[in-house]
């Protein structure tokens, strides 16, 4: 959702009417009748990173989403108007900044939201509780856990995004290395690679190193059978986020200190653009990315080696990291019921099956399974086993994904682990005052 899109210039009804006046006789009457019929259709406004695409456009994600939108429009006799984010229009404001502004001012009915924005708007009670939708009954627990704020399910996605390590299996085989299960095993793999002339075994960027951190920090919290109690203790200040994060940041610092990750390069690198070429050229054996990157030709969908996607090594084995986005409905939306009806259609098992088949992603519905490519099977198997760590959890008072990413960048820039922990403590203290 960090990618901006080109804005479509729409022709408004007033312009069409003005053009109609240039016609005469029966033509004028026919055009006015057509316009009246069009205006009779219900309108639902969506704020999203992309507009409705040109029919000629070839983009799998857009195609899959718009197939479900078309299904809803035809079934409900509505029109979805897309209001898209473009960096050139909003200058220094991010997609999330604009989403917050629009939602707080009730400018749209539906919003496609990132994890941190879901948490903020949910806590401000600006998003409708969607738990009464019939489609909500089909959701995987990971979705409900991630997007529930104060007992309300405030957002539902069309796919579950899972992050993992993308590894060159051929290079591991070349040096007799098994794919790592634990943090110690990953260190050993990196040592062997480096001793054999691979200067930087792990390619990284400034956005996704928090995934390694989450796997280390929260493997036990989410898989130890005491998740709700531990999160409640964090929200009350009885436990510290820094106690979870300290070992994880120490581990990341060790990877940096040993040169297994190039901190200086990562600090100024965009996702995939920096580490991708070396990974595809088999100069770097390990990178981190999200599920769909394995399917995308512009990322890692076409490589000349045997690729595997595994969870991040942790104390509980290979651990997928899952941040959850979602569609939310404005609590005071002008077309609230129509917006809910649209979600019922595009998030139904019928529509999600269409979406999943095109994009080959993990569905939020427990009834819809993905036929993933072989490279993704290790990651998919762990998620099927309900083994994962949440990278975003709207039930935690301290927002996780954005804050951890920001603090990781402090570490990359030279901050000490204890300085990073002090920032987590500060954020927790602020959350306790609210």
Brief account:
The protein is of the alpha/beta class and 434 residues long.
What does this structure look like?
This protein is an alpha/beta fold. It is built from 19 helices and 12 strands. A 4-stranded mixed beta sheet has the order 2-1-3-11, sandwiched between helices. Strands 7-8-6-9 form a 4-stranded mixed beta sheet. The chain has a two-stranded antiparallel sheet with strand order 4-5. The radius of gyration is 23 Å and the shape is globular. The model is unreliable at 1-38 and 53-60 (pLDDT under 50).
* Helix fraction bin: 40-55%
Give the structural class: alpha/beta
Spans of at least 5 consecutive residues whose pLDDT stays below 50 are 1-38, 53-60
Shape: globular
Number of beta-strand segments: 12
- Summed over residues and divided by their number, the pLDDT gives a mean of 87
- Spatial order of strands in the largest sheet: 2-1-3-11
User: What is the helix tally?
Assistant: 19
Biggest sheet layout: 4 strands, mixed
Percentage of β-strand residues:
5-15%
Radius of gyration: 23 Å
The end-to-end distance, rounded to whole angstroms, is: 29 Å
